[in-house]
Design goal:
Shape: elongated
Structural class: mainly beta
Distance between the termini: 75 Å
Helix content: under 10%
Largest sheet: 11 strands, mixed
Radius of gyration: 29 Å
């Protein structure tokens, strides 16, 4: 081996001959394994690193395809970029608690790697750290990691489970792209951002739960997951998911703690084949809009509530309570859902009151009971209104603000 000396530091800079085969013991006193020190040493089988080493530099063992084992001592604090890039024979690695940084592409393309232990000292899993580690079957991300970097586990097709701790706030672009072995993932309450393509083409993923803490879901974040499939997303993101899930996902469960703009099980919705219970309508099915068009359902929504409080319990609205033929039949809706009451006027269920003598009063029902709500997202919220039994025109699932304006017919919702 060749060395350089600088003050109290000793750096391994290379090995001669480069076709060396077998095991290497780096002598005590070496503090740094230098840039590309063992690059392309295809015959290297194992390496012993002494406790004096603190840094494994850029590309130190790049393309050492014969390397099957390495013990990283507790003295090491930094594993540099591409340090073990392309070490296809490496089976397992234990990263000591002294390490705080795993560099970009540190274990990129280590296709033989089946297990890795990441210590609590690590705070960031960098860009492409385990890119293409197809043999990796499970990984536990420690409690101090705040960011899972872009491409961190890209193409880890053997990965069947991943534990994401409550410390993580950001899941980067393509972090788990094409992790086809993943079947489910639970994202903790600490996460605020799921970036572009984070779980794209995870073909085995059939369920995902997204917490209320998430404020951003990037485009294609869950694009291409298997069918049938379900997702649970916060109510605040009910409109942000369309590109994120615009693939084969069939059901999105919207979790709403305050408002739940939906219909109860059994609500009849008009389709080209007559009225059908809303829970039987699937993504891609045609429904008939209030103006007589047949449009496909973009997504279905389902929300279960174990105990309906006054904020979410539905209202029973009798036929004719608002005026002649208004509504034209009895209906039951969640508090914030709107029905068309003529012209450019829309009224949420909670603001409906009986003003016609002899008609039963509007009342809130099922308080304290379990209920299940459903709703449908149609191609164009501005123009695509649903029709429920008896011809009542109601809104589909769409964006909600204090004043709603439908762009094509200047129809405004009343403030809620």
């Amino acid at each position: 081996m060749s060395y350089t000396l600088e003050g109290d530091s000793t750096t391994v800079t290379g090995i001669s001959p480069t076709d060396y085969a077998g095991a290497i013991v780096i002598p005590d006193g070496v503090t740094t394994i230098g840039t590309s020190a063992f690059y392309g040493c295809t015959g290297l089988k194992s390496v012993t690193i002494p406790n004096s080493v603190t840094t494994i530099s850029y590309g130190a063992f790049d393309s050492c395809v014969g390397l099957t084992s390495v013990t990283i001592p507790d003295s090491v604090t930094t594993i540099g970029n591409s340090a073990f890039y392309g070490c296809t024979g490496l089976k397992s690695v234990t990263i000591p608690i002294s390490v705080t940084t795993i560099g970009t592409s540190a274990f990129d393309s280590c296709v033989g790697l089946t297990s890795v232990t990441i210590p609590n000292s690590v705070t960031t899993i960098s860009y492409g750290a385990f890119y293409g580690c197809a043999g990796l079957t499970s990984v536990t991300i420690p409690n101090h990691v705040t960011t899972i970097g872009d491409y961190a586990f890209y193409g880890c097709t053997g990965l069947t489970s991943v534990t994401i701790p409550n410390s993580v706030t950001t899941i980067g672009d393509f972090a788990f792209y094409i992790c086809t072995g993943l079947t489910s993932v639970t994202i903790p309450d600490s996460v605020t951002t799921i970036s572009y393509g984070a779980f794209q083409d995870c073909a085995g993923l059939t369920s995902v739960t997204i917490p209320n803490s998430v404020t951003t879901i990037g485009d294609y974040a869950f694009h291409g997951i298997s069918d049938p499939s379900t997702a649970s997303v916060p109510y605040t993101l009910r409109n942000a998911y369309s590109q994120a899930f615009d693939a084969t996902i069939t059901t999105v469960t919207v979790r709403a703690e305050i408002t739940a703009p939906c219909f109860l099980t059994g609500t009849p919705v008009l389709t080209p084949n007559g009225y059908k219970p809303i829970e039987t309508i699937m993504k891609g099915d045609l429904v008939t809009t209030a103006d007589g068009r047949h449009v496909p359902v973009r997504h279905t929504y389902r929300k279960s509530i174990d105990y309906a409080t006054q904020k979410v319990a539905p209202y029973a609205i009798p036929a004719g309570c608002l005026g002649p033929n208004l509504p034209c039949s009895d209906l039951v809706m969640s508090p914030e859902h709107c029905l068309h009451i003529g012209g450019d006027r829309w009224l949420p269920a909670r603001r409906c009151i009986t003003i016609v003598e002899g008609v039963e009063p509007v009342r809130q029902i099922h308080i304290g009971k379990p209920i299940v709500y459903y709703n449908l997202s149609l191609p164009t919220y501005a123009t695509d209104n649903l029709v429920i039994f008896g011809g009542v025109e109601v809104e589909s699932m769409g964006p909600r603000t204090l004043v709603w304006e439908k762009s094509m017919n200047a129809c405004k919702r009343l403030p809620k």
